[in-house]
Design a protein that fits this description.
The chain has 18 helices and two strands. Helix 5 runs antiparallel to helix 16 and helix 8 packs across helix 12.
């Protein structure tokens, strides 16, 4: 029994080979669909420039310190999400499993959207790219979802080594293709309209509590706050890593790609006379038209959708790794066994989201299952999760313990982390009460 437990610990506690390897892996996890798919359509639905301003404020003031805190907590505990929060207090283990369940919900539909990117990559190779309504007319969403889930299981069977190798290859090429598409977008007639959409901020909207809710939700979503990613990835960090520097790098890459994604898509949206508030299918409606009309578009479509799939796939791996690490370490299972169990769970749960974009059109209260789960789990739930986790860590873990794993003697980071972590819950509660009161007055 002792030998088996020793082998289990050795298998589970592999580390990233270096700080750059952690940065590349975490950036690949953060950059995925949250930036290329979700950020543009959230921006399109929430006022363009006003949303960007609110998003950047949320990211810099609140989300970045919590990101550093979660990574440091994972490094301190050197364990999965449940193990990390168990070290805090009795409630911590309940919260840890809550985080895993949130990640299960998000990953179940994330795999479906990643299947769309794979389908578009395959169609690009076949030179038969279709707009989303045509793509989803059959059961493509279901078949590609199953394919992506099984492929993820193969990669994760190799543990973090497979994630690291994929991430190092992915990031530079993906950013290069996006920058080229932004350059091509700058030559379209819709460029100026897109610039106005970005830069002309309606400051009256900054008083809209719903806008701030979406902005914070997107910031929490794209940096994977309150979802266990950061704690889990942080638990594999080598001891010499400078945590604030690594997190700043990841946040910088993530924010740059999100903004570039907007500059890549919206000029074409306006050039084709489309509306920016189309929702979750925005990128899949716009880009096929772009490549169809662009000289050499067939080859560029192959490169872009192939990389789009790779970015989305890396985010799926991160989400699945959170779940697998918790299942393996909490139930003392080998990595391969945990991968098999989690894969089966994802195939069951994700089917509902996949079938919502097939002729069966599964819905919840008239809304596609996938959109409903994204709206709830990808918004208010992860804000609550992230704020609760930060409060637990900052109120029950002494600052000196977090300081010991930050990898820097600069206490400014420690001060900022604890200021946000301890008092953000109070501010969120006040904001929620004010928003509720305003809604009640408007309704009355």
């Amino acid at each position: 029994m002792v030998r088996r437990q020793h082998e289990f610990i050795e298998e589970s506690r592999k580390q990233w080979t270096s700080e750059p390897a952690f940065v590349a892996s975490m950036a690949a996890a953060a950059v995925g669909l949250g930036n290329l798919w979700r950020f543009p359509y959230m921006m399109g639905q929430n006022g363009g420039g006003a949303f960007v301003v609110a998003y950047l404020i949320a990211l810099i003031v609140v989300v970045l310190p919590i990101m550093i805190l979660e990574v440091a907590a994972g490094r301190l505990s050197e364990g999965n999400t449940v193990h990390t929060y168990r070290q805090v207090n009795r409630f911590g283990v309940v919260y840890g499993w809550f985080v895993v369940l949130v990640t299960v919900a998000i990953t179940s539909y994330y795999l479906v959207i990643t299947g769309w990117t794979l389908g578009y990559a395959v169609d690009a190779v076949r030179t038969d790219i279709r707009v989303f309504d045509d793509f989803s007319a059959g059961f493509n969403s279901l078949w590609y979802f199953i394919a992506v889930t099984l492929l993820a299981a193969v990669v994760l069977a190799r543990d973090i080594e497979g994630i690291e190798k994929l991430s190092k290859l992915l990031m530079p090429v993906l950013i290069g293709v996006i920058v080229f598409l932004v350059y091509r977008a700058s030559q379209t007639e819709g460029w100026q309209q897109a610039a106005d959409f970005f830069w002309q901020v309606d400051f009256s909207r900054m008083l809209d509590g719903q806008l701030w809710g979406f902005a914070f939700g997107q910031a929490f979503y794209t940096l994977a706050i309150g979802q266990g990613y950061l704690v889990t990835y942080g638990s594999f960090i080598p001891r010499k890593t400078h945590v604030p520097r690594a997190c700043l790098t990841v946040a910088g890459v993530e924010t740059s790609v999100a903004l570039l994604a907007g500059w890549m898509i919206f000029p074409f949206v306006f050039s084709f006379g489309m509306e920016p508030d189309q929702g979750s299918a925005l990128a899949f409606e716009t880009l096929p038209r772009v490549f169809d009309r662009m000289p050499g578009g067939a080859w560029l479509a192959i490169a872009f959708f192939g990389l789009f799939f790779a970015a989305a796939f890396s985010s799926c791996l991160a989400g699945l790794k959170v779940i697998i690490a918790a299942v393996a370490e909490e139930f003392r299972l080998r990595n391969g066994t945990a991968v098999a169990l989690v894969t089966g769970l994802m195939l069951v749960l994700g089917t509902a989201s996949a079938l919502s974009f097939t002729p069966l059109e599964w819905t919840i209260a008239g809304e596609p299952v996938l959109d409903a789960i994204d709206r709830v789990a990808g918004g208010d739930v992860i804000i609550v999760s992230g704020v609760t986790g930060a409060a637990l860590l900052c109120w029950f873990i002494p600052p000196m313990h977090i300081r010991s794993v930050l990898g820097t003697a600069n206490r400014w980071w420690e001060w900022r982390i604890y200021l946000v972590g301890r008092y953000l819950p109070v501010l969120v509660l006040i904001w929620a009460l004010i928003t509720y009161g305003v809604a009640q007055m408007a309704g009355g």
